[in-house]
Each structure stands twice: as structure tokens, then as C-alpha cells.
Predict the structure.
Amino acid sequence: MRNLLPLGLVGLLLIAWSAGLAEHVSLAGFIRHREELAGLVAANFPLALAAYMLLYAALVTISFPGASLLTVAGGFLFGGLIAGTATVLAASIGAILVFLAARTSLADLFNRRAGGFVARFAEGFRGDAFAYLLSLRLTPVFPFWVVNIVPGLLNVRLAPYAAATLIGIVPGTLAYAFVGAGL
């Protein structure tokens, strides 16, 4: 069963992409629907915030591009601090789900195929996984999804991974959320 989880995640990504979700998670899509979205948020703030967080976590889980834009949209709809906090929590949940999928079902496959690429990360994680991951999160040289998967492949413990992810994404997330709040 655990070997089917990655296939399910890939399947969800393909379904989302083919269903045109990318058009809705775009600047043009957001601008096109901004009044309706603002009305929905005003009518039921807690439910709208929960839906935003669920969508955000789901998009991170399937490694869907456009998270930065969604963070800006969240800032516009909910305000910088609320959107930033909600986004950090949702992104962390999504990242943890990807990490767990990589750790439980993808590790053998990726380690066989990624060899040298993963080996470069392995050295950093051996010393102090928390500090190394925190530096990867604070200086986003690698795509978010890569930094979600590789620690799972290298059997990094969940607690340091979750803590470094939660702390490390705060500055960038708040910056994007406050940009959105300023729109």
C-alpha cells in the first residue's frame, strides 16, 4: 500500500494539471475572480481560511507550482499576518506529507536513481540535519519540493525536519503574504 502513495500523488498532480487548475492558480485567474473571492472571504472568514489552508497543503503535497502566487493571493484576501501564519502551517503540513511519502515509499527507488545528487545532500544532513535543512529553507537555492523529498530519502528524523521547515519558511512566506496584503 505504501508503494502506491507516490503513484497516487503523481496521479493527483496530473489530474489537477489536466483539469486546468494551473489556470486558476495564476495571476490572471486570481485577478479574474478577485471580487468573488473577496466576497466569499467576507461572508465566511473561518471557512474561507480553512479552505485556503486545505488547498495550500494539497498543492504543496502534490508539488504543484504556483505556491508563491497563492501566498500573495492569501495576503490579499486575509491580510498579511493571518495569511502568512496560515500559509506557514499549511505549507508545513503539505511538506511533511511529501517528506513522509518519500521516506516510506520512495526512498529505495530514488536512492538507486538519484545517486550523486542525493549524496551531495547526505553530507550536510549527516552533521546537523536541523541546521542544514534550516539553511536550505532560508536560502531557497533548491526548489521547495526538492527540499521536501530529499530529507525523507536520507532518513532524516521527522521532528527536526518539521521544525526546520516551519521556522525556515516563515521569512519568505510572510514577505509574499504582506506583498499580497499591499495590493
About this structure: Residues 80-127 form the longest helix (48 residues). The mean pLDDT is 84. Residues 111 and 119 are 9 Å apart (CA to CA).
